[in-house]
Amino acid sequence: MNPFAGRHVHLMGIGGCGMRALVPLLRRCGATISGCDVADSSTVQALRATGCQVWLGHDPAHLDGVDVVVHTSAVASNHHELRQAQANGCDIMSRASCLAELMRDHRTVAVVGSHGKTSTAWMLAHLLRSAGRDPAVMIGGAGELVDEDHVGGDDWFVAEIDESDGGFGHVDPRIVVVTNLEAEHVRHYGGFPALVQAMAGWLGQVPEDGLVIAGTERLPEELLAACRCPVRRCGIEAGEIQAHDLRLEAGGGSARIRWQGRDHGRLLVPRPGRHMIANALLAWAAAEAVHPGIDPQALATCTPIRRRFTDQGTVAGVRVIEDYAHHPTEVAATIAAAALGGGAVHVVFQPHRYTRTADCFAGFCAAFDQAAAVVILPVYAAAEDPVAGPGARDLAEAIAGRRGADGARVQHLRQIAAAVDFLAAHARPGDCCLVLGAGDVGRVIEPLRAALARGRS
Asked: pTM of the entire structure?
């Protein structure tokens, strides 16, 4: 039974990537969509352009005629708009439970993990499409050439599943891809061991005729101990399915795939970095499980994902790259990928959430070691209140302290104008400027391009 047909569904926090991705899937089910968010954004504007009513701010008046309200985990249970929805008799659903309903009539490939979920899910979907399949697709990022997540025409559903709030427990997948698992979002669980335990229990519920495909790095071994189904490990020169003969270049990478004693061809990855080859290998393994005979070279034509090493152009010989990296592991990997271009790498980083900045502080201090000049912007709160512990200024001072006499090349700057002037003063032709973070750090890009152009004119 379709619980959304002919009903008005209101999404609280519609501007977030996870909520936005529900819109085309709900429309396919015959729902009318509205939503609200605390701030305007390119996502909000794009949704309005498709005819979706989106309000800024929260107000019970938004609920006139609404049948179903879907909310993120960031919305407190006593929120005034949510309380009014309950009083109005609306059905109330979390994002995770809504997604589970949308998946109900599909065989699902769930992609989970601390890092690489979006890229892995998107490459998996591309490989299946290249083989003639037409899965429904829901990911956190968006393809540059795709306005909305694909609703699909066959019975497979490829979904990026967030582990931040335990929502994966609502999903009943046939295949699970686990990229990795690190100490991220641990406050929700009460610690990393509890996160591992929760995900291990969920993986143990994958049916015996299902499959778990897991990476070989940054993954606790106990995570897979309870699996009833086959487990297939994939890694760079490790695991059952291996990538070897790696070629890492500024424009992308490649590796040969070895499995079951034979070579399966060369994997062509249109984004640079060792981590992207690991993601692509997992994507190929999952696609091969769904549709045997997948051509690994098909990834060469995979359209890019916004904010995943997105090339924002070269100005006065300096490349400007934007990336969503917001965890120490991701920051270090993205800087290493940028360094493949041969020049110095300069970074402007906007920490995302007070809790992550404090909890991952030690990792962040070391993550920028390969960067030349570094600007740390104020924390992007993402609806959080400040917490006890180190913040953005502390992070900049700690990174500078690791560098001794070179510490002046690391600054905590509150204003974008000051940040772009600092980076432009350090950048030289052949260098790369990285714009990193999961908040609104993209506001830096155009001023940075302008500053680079002025400096070389």
From this structure: 0.90
